[in-house]
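Example with several molecule types.
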Amino acid sequence: LGRIIAIANQKGGVGKTTTAINLSASLAAADCRVLVVDCDPQANSTSGLGFPQDAERPGVYDLLMGAEPDAVILETAFDSLHLIPSSRHLAGANVELVDADGREQRLKKQLAKLRDRYDFIMLDCPPALDLLTINALTAADAVLIPIQCEYFALEGISALMDTVDSIQQSLNPGLSIEGVLLTMFDERMTLTRQVEADLREFFQEDVFQTVIPRNVRLAEAPSHGKPVMQYDLRSRGAESYLNLAREILARSGSR
Amino acid sequence: LGRIIAIANQKGGVGKTTTAINLSASLAAADCRVLVVDCDPQANSTSGLGFPQDAERPGVYDLLMGAEPDAVILETAFDSLHLIPSSRHLAGANVELVDADGREQRLKKQLAKLRDRYDFIMLDCPPALDLLTINALTAADAVLIPIQCEYFALEGISALMDTVDSIQQSLNPGLSIEGVLLTMFDERMTLTRQVEADLREFFQEDVFQTVIPRNVRLAEAPSHGKPVMQYDLRSRGAESYLNLAREILARSGSR
Ligand SMILES: Nc1ncnc2c1ncn2[C@@H]1O[C@H](COP(=O)(O)OP(=O)(O)OP(=O)(O)O)[C@@H](O)[C@H]1O
Ligand SMILES: Nc1ncnc2c1ncn2[C@@H]1O[C@H](COP(=O)(O)OP(=O)(O)OP(=O)(O)O)[C@@H](O)[C@H]1O
Ligand SMILES: [Mg+2]
Ligand SMILES: [Mg+2]
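Resulting structure tokens for the full complex:
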């Protein structure tokens, strides 16, 4: 049965989308059937997987409003990697669902129909602890937290963990931490080293062994609509996400 | 009469807070009276100016709910630089104000009382086109758009400009573009150069002459609760924000 992993952190620009795309592509390369769900109205996972912005294309917004999953799932150009796209429409869901019944559980109910068709369902979250992120955390088995080793990123951790706690207590008692992923890591910077030490102390063994280095190939790949392994397999960016996929597969005992 | 500038871009991690703090400190160093309003529940401008997180401290949330401005304004450790802080409470405003009358104009009404006391009022926005950002764009005379020269940042421009357009048509016809600021600029990267060319073509002379380089001192300063000029005046980061302040002052013909 497929595992649902939410990739979340309300701090902006920490590598949520880059992780959603490249971890998913790496898992698909290892013969997993993977579905990426773009829960961010910015729709960066959608374009990074080769689908230009299109406000008319049905996607996650429609899914939350009750559309059948089959009506919104897209096949990407990459084997066994599917996508439920997003568009700027999705920003409206935060307002429209405010008074709706079971507003936090909409995504969970819809993804339950898909668990037997995928090995992994990866949820790319927006940079906010809003209803979209709450829907993702409620639907997920685990949360993967990308984090830059910088001061503001450290500051936001307690708010994120409080949100995870409150979701575990009410909406999703089974939610666990998949891991904390250090991203854009530059070992030459003392700031990075200092924040890394703080994070490892706080999160202990929840921090992934794999660390994602700052690597320009990761920033270039999305402009070609491709994951980094298809854009430049020999890059450190591609190698680090393949290592992350191996680490996650080893933890869940499969493959 | 004070100018109100919103620092906005829904793309996360592009340097909104870093610009709010360091441009404000540079203007204050040039003897302007400056007020920073932290409109982001992450409260990074608040901590970057030396005020640790404190959910009990009154701030922007209270201002939006009708508190008197004098009850929430803080003096910082830096001459003629004041702050209206934020806390994670502020995230609740997005939901609580959904059905309220004049929900978009709350900040505008409150800041009107302060215009004669400051030369500049800088609004640090969250990474979302939500009610907080809309309040800031409705209250502002102009919007300053920090942007990284990377692909996903380019993608988000059209959604941001559409939001600015729709606010100009209804809530704030006087809203202009203060400028587009290229941040974390690394001239050695071809990706940066390509995206820069696209941005200059799209925004023409709205792009500031001043470009903010990637400079680790800018990332280190917030952990000391200081703007970069107080942390390391000789750094390229401090120099670039002083240049930006000069450019903005020259444009508005003062000083
Ligand atoms: N390891 C890396 N090395 C270099 N660039 C990176 C790396 N990871 C991400 N980037 C680039 O940094 C920027 C921010 O990353 P990304 O958009 O994935 O973050 P995000 O957390 O999804 O942002 P948002 O909060 O806006 O959703 C992007 O331009 C991306 O291409
Ligand atoms: N020019 C720069 N050089 C190096 N680091 C920078 C620069 N500008 C910002 N940073 C660092 O990059 C990170 C993102 O910047 P910042 O938090 O200011 O962006 P933001 O747009 O306010 O993010 P958010 O969308 O989460 O509000 C921070 O850790 C900051 O210290
Ligand atoms: Mg993203
Ligand atoms: Mg910020």
